[in-house]
Amino acid sequence: MRTVAVRITLRIPWAQSLKEKRSAVSRFIRDLDELGSLSIAEVDDHDRWQTATVGVAVVAPDEEGLGLVLDRVRGFLGRPGDIEVVSFEVGNSDE
Predict the structure, then answer these.
(1) Separation CA 24–CA 82 (nearest Å)
(2) What is the pTM assigned to this prediction?
């Protein structure tokens, strides 16, 4: 079994309140969750209007499966939208 943690920092330039930010982050998490095989949560920057940090945990049976899931996540992040990806950090995987 292989696991990896991903930390994604997002910029939401149009958010003018925490309510707008929460709405955008909730939509982002819901859409990302549709990829399947992921556990997702907002993990930092809770009190900043235009910044969000999302953690994603991925579990796969082997390195190849892990790579396929990470490729789907990268593809999702590369599509056009109103949220900018500031950083994408992949943590070490375990056996």
Answers:
(1) 9
(2) 0.89
Please name the amino acid found at residue 51. T
Q: Is the pLDDT of residue 95 over 70?
A: no
Q: Residue type for 40, please? A: I
47/37 Cα distance (integer angstroms): 28
Helices (H), the chain: 18-33, 63-77
Q: Report all structural domains of the chain as residue ranges with CATH numbers, in order of start.
A: 2-90 (3.30.70.1120)
- Please give the Cα distance from 5 to 50 (Å, whole number): 23
Q: How far apart are CA 60 and CA 64, in angstroms?
A: 8
